[in-house]
Amino acid sequence: MSNGGQGPLLAQPLQRPSAGRVAAYAGLFLLGAVAALAGALVQAAWFPGGLLLALAGAAGLFLGGAYATGGRGGAVAPAAGWIVAVILLTTSRPEGDFLFGAGGGSYLFLLGGMALAVICATLGAGRQPRGGSARLGK
């Protein structure tokens, strides 16, 4: 696999990401945290429909981030924000308050969201070598 005569893609030196890409990843991280907070509130309010809506919103954000940035990092950034926010929301406060109840819907939201994050990061748009649509090496 060559990249315009510069050698294999894996042999290329690492480059710093541009400021726009870093800002996009930071924005996607924050959007993932907001989606987790909104999903935590919605899934408990309207159980079957709210859970599906929360998981569909998370999957849309993860997959949309991958396609918007053109790489799998666009799915990982909101997934990381989602997971950090969900972990912080599951801890109880000193007053005894907590956001997630001990019900099946909460566990489905937690585990389903993590499974969706892995699926979307795996299926997200990976970077492809530039060139023609013909098979490489022919």
Which keywords apply here?
4 helices, single chain, 138 residues, elongated
Written account of the structure:
The chain has 138 residues and is mainly α. The chain has helices at residues 19-45, 47-69, 73-90, 104-123. Helix 2 packs parallel to helix 4 (104-123).
Name the average pLDDT.
81
Largest sheet: none
**Bulk shape:** elongated
Structural class: mainly alpha
Amount of helix: 55-70%
Topology, pairings included?
Elements: H1 19-45, H2 47-69, H3 73-90, H4 104-123
Q: In a nutshell, what does this entry contain?
A:
The chain is mainly alpha-helical and 138 residues long. It contains four helices and no strands. It has helices spanning 19-45, 47-69, 73-90, 104-123.
